[in-house]
């Protein structure tokens, strides 16, 4: 029986994780759940359904007190919960607010099943200082790389190749007129709204390149990305002998979530397998970096390192929020990120000492992005 804490339990990753737990009640026991302020009713319902003794929320849970479930509240409630002794903490929080909880979990000696890629983008050096074995990736591309890398030695890797669906605008030439509804209509993956917008701008792939750099300690020159519209191959590792290993499954987050929670075991029927007897066409094409400048920008930030990737992410979070509220145009998202990086990148610390450093840089980036966008 594996005891798990789920951070962000009411989001897309958290809900799917609980479905996996419900299907395998003898394998997993949920010992803690956390959610933000918007979904307290659902959080408490999940806690009752799964007999969870303790929950954390940033919202007002006073109506639920004294009913047999311990409640931690306040701004740092997820961070407190993440340090609870357990077998694995699944971090399904969206955004760099997930960094504090990730750091608290690894500092407490917990293994983290990491869906919160922003933890590594904003504070990768801080997180990975606790040891590579502490983090099991949940992001589908990185889960694929993690699985493929089990077949060889790290110093035999020539490069890794992340696949990208290309999002809904892969073939659209004019991106200035894109609406929120267009951008939320992802062709292959069903995900939360922020990661769906990030997939449409390809910022998501930029974040994932940075994530791969930290997770696998690879230089950026060894991390490529390619468009694979069918989203069946989740990423590949090319070894020095010219052999490439790929991990494939239908696009469904249940596979990588179940893999991370059960690792090194595999869960029966975590996801539907590929029907190999059906006719398939899987295609690959290069990314159009002119229409999607986010990839090169992310790579540049990654090369600069230190606080620059935290700036990239924080500016993007502000711009995406403004786009989702229909205050700015789609193309303004990456334009703004670029401007904020240009202005603040040079003054970012070359080395992050702690979470306080990250928070300070992010605050500057958020303020400047808001100013530039007038939001
Ligand atoms: Mg991904």
Element layout with pairings:
Layout: E1 2-7, H1 12-23, E2 28-35, H2 40-49, E3 54-57, E4 70-73, H3 77-82, E5 88-91, H4 99-107, E6 111-114, H5 118-128, E7 135-137, H6 140-149, E8 157-164, H7 180-184, H8 193-201, H9 203-216, E9 223-227, E10 233-239, E11 244-248, H10 254-262, H11 294-304, H12 308-324, H13 330-344, H14 355-373
Parallel strand pairs: 1-2, 1-5, 2-3, 3-4, 5-6, 6-7, 8-9
Antiparallel strand pairs: 8-10, 10-11
Helix pairs in contact: 4-5, 5-9, 5-12, 8-12, 9-11, 12-13, 12-14, 13-14
Bound molecules: magnesium ion.
Q: Would you kindly provide a written description of the structure presented here, covering whatever features stand out?
A:
The chain is an alpha/beta fold and 375 residues long. It folds into two domains: 2-137, NAD(P)-binding Rossmann-like Domain (Rossmann fold), CATH 3.40.50; 142-251 and 280-373, Rna Polymerase Sigma Factor, Chain: A (Orthogonal Bundle), CATH 1.10.1740. Helices cover 42% and strands 15% of the residues. The chain is built from 14 helices and eleven strands. The chain has helices at 12-23, 40-49, 77-82, 99-107, 118-128, 140-149, 180-184, 193-201, 203-216, 254-262, 294-304, 308-324, 330-344, 355-373; strands at 2-7, 28-35, 54-57, 70-73, 88-91, 111-114, 135-137, 157-164, 223-227, 233-239, 244-248. The strands form two sheets. A seven-stranded parallel beta sheet has the order 4-3-2-1-5-6-7, sandwiched between helices. The protein has a four-stranded mixed beta sheet with strand order 9-8-10-11, covered by helices on one side. Strand 5 (88-91), helix 4 (99-107) and strand 6 form a beta-alpha-beta unit. Helix 4 packs parallel to helix 5 (118-128), helix 8 (193-201) crosses helix 12 and helix 12 (308-324) crosses helix 14. The longest helix is centred in the last third of the chain and has 19 residues, at 355-373. It starts with a strand and ends with a helix. Residues 139-141, 208 line the site of magnesium ion (MG).
């Amino acid at each position: 029986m594996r005891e798990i804490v789920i951070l962000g339990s009411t989001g897309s990753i958290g809900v799917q994780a609980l479905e996996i737990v419900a299907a395998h009640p003898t394998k997993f026991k949920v010992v803690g759940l956390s959610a933000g302020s918007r979904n307290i009713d659902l959080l408490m319902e999940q806690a009752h359904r799964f007999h969870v003794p303790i929950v954390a929320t940033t919202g007002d849970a006073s109506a639920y007190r004294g009913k047999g479930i311990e409640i931690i509240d306040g701004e740092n409630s997820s961070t407190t919960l993440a340090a609870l002794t357990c077998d694995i903490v699944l971090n399904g929080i969206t955004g760099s607010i997930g960094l504090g909880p990730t750091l608290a979990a690894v500092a407490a000696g917990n293994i983290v099943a990491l869906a919160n890629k922003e933890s590594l983008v904003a504070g990768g050096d801080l997180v990975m200082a606790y040891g590579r074995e502490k983090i099991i990736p949940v992001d589908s591309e990185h889960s694929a790389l993690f699985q493929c890398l089990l077949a060889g030695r790290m110093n035999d890797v020539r490069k890794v190749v992340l696949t990208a669906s290309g999002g809904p605008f892969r073939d659209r030439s004019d991106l200035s007129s894109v609406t929120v509804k267009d951008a939320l209509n992802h062709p292959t993956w069903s995900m939360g709204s922020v990661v769906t917008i990030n997939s449409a701008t390809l910022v998501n792939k930029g974040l994932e390149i940075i994530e791969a750099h930290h997770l696998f300690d690879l230089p950026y020159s060894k991390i490529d990305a390619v468009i694979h519209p069918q989203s069946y191959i989740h990423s590949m590792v090319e070894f020095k002998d010219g052999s490439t290993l790929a991990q494939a499954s239908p696009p469904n987050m249940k596979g990588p979530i179940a893999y991370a929670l059960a690792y090194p075991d595999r869960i029966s029927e975590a996801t539907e397998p590929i029907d190999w007897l059906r006719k398939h066409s899987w295609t690959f094409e290069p990314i159009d970096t002119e229409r999607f400048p986010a990839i090169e920008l992310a790579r540049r930030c990654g090369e600069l390192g230190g606080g620059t990737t935290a700036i990239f992410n924080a500016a993007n979070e502000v711009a995406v929020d403004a786009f989702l509220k229909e205050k700015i145009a789609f193309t303004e998202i990456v334009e703004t990120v670029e401007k904020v990086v240009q202005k603040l990148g040079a003054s970012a610390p070359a080395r992050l000492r702690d979470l306080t450093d990250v928070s300070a840089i992010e605050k500057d980036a958020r303020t400047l992005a808001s100013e530039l966008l007038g939001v």
